[in-house]
Amino acid sequence: MNTGFLMLLITSFISSMYAQKINEVKLKKLLTKAEETHSEALIIYKNNELVVEKYFGIGQAEKKIESMSCTKSIVGLAVACLLTDGLIKSLDTPISDYYPEWKQGQKQLITIRHLVNMTSGMQNNPNASVEIYPSNDFVQLALAAELSKAPGEAFEYNNKSLNLMAGVIKKITGKRMDDYIGDRLFKPLEITDYTWTLDNAGNPHVMSGCQIKPNDLVKLGILLLNKGYYNNFRVIAHENILEVVDPSTQFKGYGMLWWLDHENTISTVDNEIINDLRKENVSEEFIMKAVKMKGRYNSNEDYLVKLKNVFGSNPYEYLSQHLKPGFRLRKRDFSGNVTYRADGYLGNYIIVNPKDKIVAVRMISHQSFKTDRDAFSDFAKEIVDLTK
Question: Minimal CA–CA distance to 377: which of 364, 386, 367?
Answer without folding.
Answer: 364
